[in-house]
Write a structure and sequence with these properties.
With 537 residues, the protein is an alpha+beta fold. Helix content is 39%, strand content 18%. One of its GO terms (biological process) is carbohydrate metabolic process.
């Protein structure tokens, strides 16, 4: 679109806004009806470990959202000379799972507990046995039940529980709503009704009936919406919260809030059956849209849904890029100390490409980027670890390849289950910052999973763009037009992508590395047992 057309679209509100609360960044993206990004803004943040829980404080959540929106708004002012006053539709997304517990006045009863917490093992195991359905530690219902097991004093005061996306949506609209994809990380979803599984709701209520709580679990959970439905409108309070300047108009329709897994599927056009996507960030997860249910319950596989309700097998590893970023930060410090400057993008590119010069297996080196517990490998806590033998080939290329390989070690262990279940995958698309360096990340992931991996030209747009697409779908879809058709025919029909097929040498090298990874888990466990947090202070 021309500058004039963009300006007219902004003024007329022929736009859609997506805001996503990721693990390291909050991003706001405004798109037009051609799904092109008009402007964006972001806010960097980090989770904190407080009183034994990974969390983000409420003040930072709101400040980060306002900052991302303000930067986007400023960009529009600078580019087009317009003060943003309205948009056609809005959608909020965030990290899935976790636990936001509210009382009847909407106040937080305990600090936000994120997906990263590995504190609900007992609850997850007991609920999995009760439901005969895998309940991961990250899920909201596991957090609730663990609070019950711990006899936490806030539980009788509960009025509602939700996710971060659901919380922000409620602050914007006054409606306790949740998109079905995000809801499927709170409590199991029944595929036919597209709602919380009724028999499991009943089982849970009966299971805790002896506690005599003044609530039923179905009263605590937000209402489930599917993609394309309207889930509320922007109130005066919500508009002021998002835009403290007071320029944003009220009454704007909001689509259902979604989790980052759902926006990742949308952003990579992976909502059709037999498609999959891999999202890489602080954590890494692979989402495969299934044709049929798995034959049994697997604790490594989350059963969730697409934003329109199709069943998905999700392999989620809690740790991925944090340790890589830490090491690259160390190299950046060295570069600055030597007077070579601080070109972060160049440094990343050089170091990532060194991995392609390495020995196929990484030269016998081993690392674990476990900043937190890892459910797939059974680690309750995290200890980032690098280890080698005297015979290892310790050079920069092998060092980088090892850290890239290990980022996908736990994911591969989980994906092997789907392979053994004969799950058919026609295509896998990848997105996340790791893929900004051309081909390197694709080649590593393709070797790790032994499948072709594609990255589309839109991959860098990320989950906020995917959320904006869901907001656009709500107001721009044709009657009865399904989400997969909307994406296939309107959004991605002429989007280019590049696919990397597995290299036999890389695949063999990763298999050797993975065996080392499995054998070395005892070393990681020993580090957890003997290396105290904060150095023992």
């Amino acid at each position: 679109m021309s500058q004039v057309d963009m300006k007219e679209a902004i003024t007329a509100g022929a736009t859609s806004l997506g805001i996503e609360f990721g693990s390291t960044r909050i991003k706001a993206v405004l798109i037009n009806k051609r799904f092109e990004t008009i402007a964006s803004g972001s806010y960097e943040w980090e989770n904190q470990l407080k009183d034994g829980f990974w969390t983000y404080d409420l003040e930072t959540i709101i400040d980060g959202m306002q900052t991302a929106y303000r930067k986007m708004k400023q960009s529009i002012q600078e580019q087009y000379g317009i003060t943003l006053q309205t948009v056609g539709s809005i959608g909020f997304s965030a990290m899935m799972h976790g636990y936001i517990a509210l009382d009847n006045s909407g106040e937080l009863l305990v600090p936000f507990r994120t997906w990263r917490n590995a504190t609900t093992g007992a609850a997850a195991r007991e609920l999995t046995e009760l439901f005969q359905f895998n309940i991961p530690e990250r899920w909201s219902i596991a957090h609730l039940y663990q609070a019950i097991l711990n006899e936490e004093t806030h539980v009788p005061q509960l009025s509602s529980i939700t996710t971060l996306a659901g919380y922000i949506h409620w602050r914007m609209t006054g409606n306790h709503a949740i998109g079905i994809g995000d809801a499927s990380g709170m409590f199991p979803i029944e595929e036919t009704s597209h709602n919380y599984h009724p028999s499991m709701i009943k089982q849970f209520n009966e299971h805790v009936s002896g506690k005599s709580y003044p609530w039923k679990v179905e009263d605590l959970l937000p209402k489930v919406y599917r993609a394309g439905e309207e889930a509320g409108t922007l109130t005066a309070e919500g508009a002021k919260l998002l835009d403290p300047d007071g320029d944003l108009q009220t009454g704007i329709p909001l689509c259902p809030p979604e989790g980052d897994a759902g926006t990742g599927m949308v952003a990579t056009n992976s909502v059709r059956k037999r498609t999959g996507n891999i999202s890489v960030g602080t954590s890494v997860f692979a989402m495969i849209v299934l044709e049929k249910e798995l034959s049994t319950v697997y604790p490594e596989i989350d059963m969730v849904t697409t934003p329109d309700g199709s069943p998905v097998g999700m392999v989620h590893a809690n740790n991925c890029s944090s340790d890589i970023n830490a090491w690259l930060g160390l190299f950046l410090e060295f570069s600055e100390a030597m007077g070579y400057g601080s070109d972060k993008e160049k440094l990343f590119g050089v170091l990532f490409n060194k991995a392609l010069e390495a020995d196929p297996d990484g030269g016998g080196l081993l690392s674990y980027g476990y900043y937190s517990g890892e459910n797939i490998t059974g680690m309750e806590k995290g200890r980032p670890l690098f280890v080698r033998s005297p015979e290892s080939k310790f050079n920069l290329a092998n060092f980088m390849r090892t850290h890239l390989f290990t980022a996908f070690g736990a994911l591969r262990i989980g994906m092997d289950i789907l392979t053994n279940e004969q799950v058919q995958i026609d295509s896998v698309l990848a997105h996340g910052g790791l893929f900004k360096t051309p081909l390197v990340g694709q080649r590593i992931v393709s070797a790790a999973l032994n499948v072709p991996v594609a990255v589309m030209s839109t991959a860098g747009e990320g989950g906020a763009w995917g959320m904006a697409l869901l907001a656009s779908y709500m107001i721009n879809k044709d009657a009865e037009e399904s989400l997969d058709i909307f994406l296939e025919q309107k959004v991605f029909h002429d989007v280019e992508g590049e696919e990397v097929t597995p290299d036999d040498t890389d695949v063999h090298g990763f298999e050797i590395f993975l065996e080392r990874y499995r054998q070395g888990l005892a070393i990681e466990q020993a580090a957890i047992d003997h290396l105290l947090e904060n150095g023992g202070n």
